[in-house]
Amino acid sequence: MGMKEFDYYIFVDYSENLIGYSIIEKCKLKELLPRISRFKHFRVARNKKLYLKNVKKTIERENICSSFLKLKIQSMSNNMEIYLDTENSDNCVIFSQNSLDRELYTQSDKTPRVPCILEFLKKYANCIIFISVDNKQYPSFRKMIHIVDGNHVVIKQESELREGTPEYQVSLVLDNLLNIERIKKYEN
User: Fold this and answer.
1) What is the pLDDT of residues 26-73, one digit of tens each?
2) Angle between the 48-61 and 166-187 helix axes, to the nearest 10 degrees?
3) pTM for the full predicted model
4) Whether the Cβ atoms of residue 8 and residue 168 lie closer than 8 Å to each other
5) Contact (CB, 8 A) for 114 and 70
6) Contacts of 176 (CB under 8 A, 6+ apart)
7) Are strands 8-15 and 153-157 parallel, antiparallel or unpaired?
8) Of 173, 179, 181, 182, nearest to 9 (Cα)?
9) 8-state DSSP, 128
């Protein structure tokens, strides 16, 4: 897995009008890899619709989403909320919630809420973030993370992922889920 292993791997990705993030623990990442070995980038699939249909079946059959500590997709118009929100949005898709979420992130009325990336980084050290942003946005994102906890977090652009690495393979889960949600919105 490269030179250094991290306790948590965070992936942030965009697809047209959607943004999503996923957080996975190191031990779950290793368990997940055999179940997603056939995943590839959506853009290289010949029959994109059939590929996404098969990916969706695999995600459901293999219970892929349960491997993630957090996994959330929402409208791009709420893109800052992915980093700052503390409550469930009406226009977001939450794929899994772990018991850890309910324990650490509950409102006074005991309704589970989805923690944001920045809140997560304040609680847990030794994380790495792979983010899909252009070169103009990257320095600003680095500054924002450094304000929260720049000493314990490594930030990499998604373009720095090398095909065939475990990190690359896990990033494809979020990439494919974003494409499934995007296509679903067009069909409705």
Assistant:
1) 999 999 999 999 998 888 888 988 999 999 999 999 999 999 988 888
2) 110
3) 0.81
4) no
5) yes
6) 39, 42, 52, 55, 59
7) unpaired
8) 173
9) E
CA 161 to chain centre: 14
Whether residue 112 contacts residue 54, with contact meaning beta carbons closer than 8 Å, is answered with: no
143 contacts: CB under 8 Å, gap ≥ 6? none
Tokens of 188: 């409705």
17 φ/ψ angles, rounded to the nearest 5 degrees: -105, 20
Cα 82 off chain centre by: 10
- Tens-digit pLDDT profile for residues 119-129: 888 888 888 88
| CA–CA dist 23, 142 (Å, integer) | 18
CA atoms of 88 and 167, how far apart (whole Å): 27
Beta-bridge partners for 120: none
Give the pairing of strands 153-157 and 127-131: parallel
Give all strands (DSSP E) within the chain, no chain letters: 8-15, 18-25, 70-75, 92-97, 127-131, 153-157
DSSP bridge partners of 154: 128
Instruction: For the domain made up of 8-187, give the CATH fold.
Output: Nucleotidyltransferase; domain 5 (3.30.420)
Domain ranges of the chain: 8-187
Paired tokens of 145? 């993370």
